[in-house]
Amino acid sequence: MGRSESTHNTAPELREIDPVWTRIREEAAEAHGEEPLLGGLLHSTVLHHKTLAQALGYRIALKLASGEMSEQLLREVADDMYQRHPDILQAARADLVAVEERDPACHRLLQPLMYFKGFQAVQAYRIGHALWKEGRRDLAYFFQMRVSECFGIDIHPGATIGRGIMIDHAHSIVIGETAVVGDNVSMLHSVTLGGTGKEDEDRHPKIGDGVLIGAGAKVLGNIKVGHCSRIAAGSVVLQEVPPCKTVAGVPAKIVGEAGCDQPSVTMDQLLSGKQALPADVQDS
């Protein structure tokens, strides 16, 4: 009986352990000590809250609030979505860790939550996507509009995006309605996952797990990009990309192997030797 009571009493405490959130709070306290002028911001954004969900809801609401919809209303929407869709909170944790691991400019888990618009925009998209799946399309479109206005990133709420996403710099990202992005994908600024015309069916790219998409790359149409592939900066991809390959050029062509098991994690964007350019560009 004593053992049963002990297990029952400690189980809720174990469920409440969140090492990611604990570390963020510790980093916020440290940042406060280093820069007292940020004390109010750090307290309202992090230290005032008991959970990561509360902090995310507050941060997203603060960023997206306008004269059209108040911070309080947006906070209520965010809190409700996090409570009823715990998967989007788990995705946020994976995104935080991905940014810290892959972005050399990120030295604390606190930074994406506080300062990185790529992370913030993706979390706001996740709430909009949850609304979209519930059939609350107008409110989902509102989230899309405000994310575009506030962050310069346009992600349709109907798009499907996996966990462990890192969008570096993040300016001018466009992801279309029927696009699918797998887990552990990294992309840089000015990436477009778009369509090729006015068709109203499944018309956007399907990006596999572990893919690295360089700055300014455009992937257009209902095509597949295989797992753990690399798309070089500035490329225009119009045809399917096999797994574990590197493509480059306009239009993009296969120029070699991906070079490693997880391009999105290593973030190696260099092409070496005869892989530096597609064959037709090398010969010109």
TrEMBL record:
Signal peptide: none annotated. Pfam families: Hexapep (PF00132), SATase_N (PF06426). Pathway: Amino-acid biosynthesis; L-cysteine biosynthesis; L-cysteine from L-serine: step 1/2. This is Serine acetyltransferase. InterPro entries: Hexapep, Hexapep_transf_CS, LbH_SAT, Ser_AcTrfase_N, Ser_AcTrfase_N_sf, Ser_O-AcTrfase, Serine_acetyltransferase, Trimer_LpxA-like_sf. SUPFAM superfamilies: Trimeric LpxA-like enzymes. Belongs to the transferase hexapeptide repeat family. One of its GO terms (biological process) is cysteine biosynthetic process from serine. It comes from the Bacteria. The lineage of its organism: Bacteria, Pseudomonadati, Pseudomonadota, Alphaproteobacteria, Rhodobacterales. It catalyses: L-serine + acetyl-CoA = O-acetyl-L-serine + CoA. Its EC number is 2.3.1.30. Residues 20-124 form the Serine acetyltransferase N-terminal domain.
